[in-house]
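Researcher: Structure prediction, please.
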Amino acid sequence: MLKPASNSFKAIGLVAALVGLAPHASASWIDTDPLCQTYGCVIVHDGANFVVYDLFDNVSGSLVPVGSPLIQRLSGPQPPGGGGLVSPVVTGSLTQALTTAPLQDQGIRLGIDQTGDGIEDIVIGDLNSSGFLDAGDSLGAFQLSNTTDIVSASTSYLRSFYITSSIDFELVATAIPIGAGFGQSLNADLSAIGFDYRLQKAGNDDGLRFGQRAQKGNVLRVLTGVTNLGDLAMQPTPLVDFRKAVAKKNATNIAEQSVRFDYVYDFGAYDMSLGRGEIDFEIEFAFHRR
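Model: Predicted structure follows.
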């Protein structure tokens, strides 16, 4: 499974041919891999690293059952760039989200809003210039009023990864809480974190052109009513139903055959009513057979 919150992914690359001035049909790795073409596969990537998920189960010698997760390919043919870690990227760029995420013993920096306008009036001093909330930071005393609230320096975090396939499939997600939380149920703690998502079918992210050879009209967004991480708590929840293969043939690279999946965390619901505590979580994305 993919775990973007802990930034664990992998991926592929492609090959093309031109003769003289006349373009000839070219084929990417997904177009030539025997397992992808015979049985079907899904590929996820961050623009540089790729991982393959197969419909065919080598252990049982059969296709995975309908509704079951596809199987990550750990051996056998790997695409160029395969076998490495795939990290979610900051949406609209190729910057790995891992480089902008809190590490262990760090958290999101918070401030104090005294006027109720959602803007921090009292800032926690980032004494060690880490950019995150940690033991090196400090906050002076302040008075509480009916309008006092806590606010995040950044109330939302946008993340993305790229997907292509030679088959139809379903993208599902599970939110897994780690740690003690705020003394409420873990599901209630997760429910304070908003979650939204979308598909971007084509674009250019820091020079990575994607979607030019991807299907444009064959993806249906599943209406699951997901609005926060509590809706994804502890069970795989369908987010997007891909009704046909994402990739069109005759592409020069995998990015051309890919769409971008965007998701956003929103911490605007956090306030002092949660009490004292912390919440750590992972989101696992998986690909299931339709």
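Model: Confidence is low (pLDDT under 50) at residues 1-24.
Researcher: Thanks, that helps.
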